[in-house]
Every structure is written in structure tokens, then in C-alpha cells.
Amino acid sequence: MKARVLQSTSLVTMLALPIVSLVSVGTLRQNAAPKNEAKAAAASAFEGEIMDNDCAQMGSHEMTMKDTSLATPDLCTTYCLRFKKTPGKYVLYNAATKMIYQLDNQQEASFFKARKVTVTGTYD
Fold first, then answer.
1. pTM listed for this prediction
2. Which band of pLDDT confidence, cut at 50, 70 and 90, is reported for residue 99?
3. How confident is the model over 76-100, as a mean pLDDT?
């Protein structure tokens, strides 16, 4: 599977009853004084699930959840990020395209673990 680095500028949850968008500080700074207009214009939207990199490489949480008797993808993601010998990182996984995008803002991604989201940003 191909992995690309995604520099997120905002996350929008698709599961929220009212449509709520959360804008990161980077977006606010970028809109206030864009340093690189070409880069700002190249932002794209990417859909998928926020999950750990190990489960994303396997394509789902199924195997880890079965092996560890975890009940939910949320618990699986927490387990893979904190309790494995080699802690993982949050990624955006698109099951339809089987693409894995590494996220530069790990702290913001933690609020959306195991949720389907749309990430707006650029990738390298």
C-alpha cells in the first residue's frame, strides 16, 4: 500500500448530527497571512477513517481486535498506539482506495480516532 504524508489543515467529522467543522490553528494562521499562495490553493479533501498505522496496513481493525479481545475500533486504535512494543501513529485510511495518509497533526487526529472524517490539506 502506498503511504503519503498529509499535512492537515482542518478535520470535518462526517458522523456529527449537526455539521460541525473544526479548524486547526494552522488554517487560521494560513488564512490570516498566507505565506505560500500556491500551497494554500493546492489544498484537497481526503476521506477515510482515522486509525493506527498497523491496522491501516492490514486494512482493518479485525485481526488486532480478535487477537486482543477488544470490543471496538476505538479501543483497538488506543491499544495499537499506546500498548504495543512499537507504538504507532495516527493515519487516515481510505478503505475504498486502500490509501494510507500519514498525518502531521497527531494531537488533532487523536480526537477523531476510529471515526470517518474528511481531512482538508496538502500532501507531500
1. 0.66
2. very high
3. 94
Cα–Cα dist 42/58, whole Å? 30
Domain ranges across the chain: 1-16+54-105
Beta strand pairing status for 99-103 and 3-13?
A: parallel
Query: How many Cβ atoms from other residues are within 10 Å of residue 65's Cβ?
Result: 17
Strands 44-52 and 116-123: antiparallel
Residue 34, all three cell numbers: 498566507
What sign has the CA pseudo-torsion 23, 79, 99, 124?
positive
pLDDT single digits (tens) 101-120: 999 999 999 999 999 999 99
Do the Cβ atoms of 119 and 101 come closer than 8 Å?
A: yes
Please state, as a whole number, how many other Cβ atoms lie within 10 Å of the Cβ of residue 92: 27
Neighbours of 112 (CB within 10 A): 21
Would you state the cell numbers that stand for residue 4, as one nine-digit string?
A: 503519503
Q: What are phi and psi of 17, to 5 degrees?
A: -60, -60
